[in-house]
Amino acid sequence: MSEFHIPPRTEEEEEQLREAGRLLFAGSCDFFFGAQRLDQLPPTDMPEIAFAGRSNVGKSSLVNALTGRKALARASSEPGRTKQLNFFNLAGRLTLVDMPGYGYAKAAKAVKEDWQGLMFDYLRGRPTLKRVILLLDSRIEIKESDRAVMTLLDRAAVTFQIVLTKCDAPRPGALAAKRAQAAELARQHPAAYPDILATSSESGLGIPELRAELATLALSQAQ
């Protein structure tokens, strides 16, 4: 069962957070490091937000949409392209981490094991990692690899938040059902943050809300 309790916010507080998120993500954002092994990780001097998900779920597209850049993070139609942990400095206040995709069936078994080993070692050993944004494609069913990663995040004791991607595609009823399914799944995991966000990198749906959510982590670090 999820262990989180979210205190209610007033409409004014929500608006303040959205503005804080807008200002944060309007700042500079630059790639500064790529790590293929645990001993290559950069120093831990800022809070980190990592983006995880199945190959081709839209991690890079979401990072680009959040930061308002067209090609900050590389997006590709070729699953499994991202082969390292990519670190981005957001305005000197947050580090965004684009993680390797998981669940790509055509990848060699040894490569899959190597990258999932790196992922778990990073998750459980990174003191500045504040949250993992776990992306699920709203158009397709939740896969066993997604469930396995949620269990892995529980084991690593890393807070994760489910964010649905490509939400401009499903009809409203189907999207509502997918969101309810994701919320029920989150309730089954102690490391899961209960608030489910629906986003679209194409239409901008949910982008201000996700920026606001991440701004709360930058603000809490500054206090």
TrEMBL record:
Domain of life: Bacteria
GO biological process, alphabetically ordered: division septum assembly
Function per UniProt: Necessary for normal cell division and for the maintenance of normal septation.
Record field: transmembrane: none
Entry-linked Gene3D superfamilies: P-loop containing nucleotide triphosphate hydrolases
One Pfam family from the record: MMR_HSR1
Record-annotated EngB-type G domain positions: 45-220
One example GO MF annotation: metal ion binding
GO cellular component, one term: cytosol
Coiled-coil residue windows: none
The entry's keywords: Cell cycle, Cell division, GTP-binding, Magnesium, Metal-binding, Nucleotide-binding, Septation
Native organism: Nguyenibacter vanlangensis
Required co-factors: Mg(2+)
Keyword Cell division: yes
Name of the molecule in the record: Probable GTP-binding protein EngB
UniProt similarity note: Belongs to the TRAFAC class TrmE-Era-EngA-EngB-Septin-like GTPase superfamily. EngB GTPase family.
PROSITE patterns, per database record: G_ENGB (PS51706)
